[in-house]
Amino acid sequence: MNEIIARAVDSEMDNLIRDLQRLIRQPSVSAKNQGITECASLVADIMGDAGIDSQILYLDRGVGDDRPGFNSKANPIVYGEVKSKTNPNGKTILFYNHYDVQPEDPIELWDKDPYSGDVEGNYVFGRGASDDKGELITRIKAVECIVRKTGDVPCNVKFVVEGEEEIGSNNILEYLKQYKNLFACDGIIWEFGYVDEMNRPIISLGMKGLLYVELLAKGPSRDAHSSLAVLIENPAWNLIRALISMRDNSGRILVKDWYNEVRDFSAQDISLIEQEPFNEGYFRKEYGIKKFVNNISGTETRKALVGNSTCNIAGLLSGYIGEGAKTVLPAVAMAKLDFRLVPDMIPEKQLQRIKNHLEEKGFKENEVAVRFIHGEAAARVSATDPFATIIQNAVKEIFGSVITNVSSAGTGPMHPFIEALKSPCVSVGSTYVYAKIHSPNEFARIDLLNNATKCICNIIEKFAKSG
Description:
alpha/beta, Aminopeptidase, Alpha-Beta Plaits, 2 domains, six-stranded mixed β-sheet
């Protein structure tokens, strides 16, 4: 890596932290529509200060919106671009990130104000410190350091920073369709990447998909006295029976044809999975558990994280849940479920299979209804793709080692990016694996932010030289 730029990154760390604090201190909770436009404007300002041409993009006007050219139902995207002066016809790299964050709840479990951006030693605390404002700021600062030290970028650079990732990226496909030519690129760096407990960076070549649904079981027209349970069917029991019918104790999903399209691991995939380190004891200790689902261990745990579909109950609600007793027979019972999908599962097809399953098990739609929340297909890039090789080499030079992960266990809209832009996508970044993202006391490590910024600089340099 260019030593002048590496030193520039070191000298810019105070400014990097200050800008990260600015982002953290601006709440941007998409689930509550809190601070979204304000944060988009802030991101655009920070880009502008870094020498990145920026603009805020909107979808075309939606039905019922009287403001021409503006869709009030879709959060804006911040677009940034730096064109290479010396290599304008060369390759283009695109950074995808998001400026929205998860809600801070439960706020009573935070040791600090979730929007303080407080710094203690090597740590920056606050919602979005890692996911995803910390990752975003490393990419912006990397480009800034290159431009200020060389007066140019060696290849064209683009940024797409959305505001709906934490609520399912429901409009990202429409943005990709509308701005396809503007977003055109040759390689995509995904929003994040993990660093494990031994400071080894993990790059991911894919992401699982997701199907999120709500099951609603209906009973009497209103809550009833529980003594009437001898006559009135409690919808909570119907819901429980429906849930039990969908998954066995080993974690296998019992919905008919659920696994029909699952893509087998390649020999290279298996080799990477077997080589990937995973500290089972540390993981169980961190989460306070004694064993894994179905008592799996060794390579099977890694295969599960990378390539197993899941049926998870994300939330349950029915009847009285306050303190003390209330003898009530509830009118409704609700469960929120998320299913992690793997290549080549199609969310819409899996949704129909769930509906068919419930019908076959005797649950009428007026008794247990299925409501679609959102879905996302899985994505996976081959480990032999030249772009993946560039990333691996660049990361190893900075961190001293690299772990290549076949797929992240999490989900994001990687599939529509790959499909719409016809470009490979790799996930790399600075998020410590136990950084408490989506939880109270989320943090980012400053040393990892530094390394990630240098890593992004190195990726840009190597990508520019690759063709």
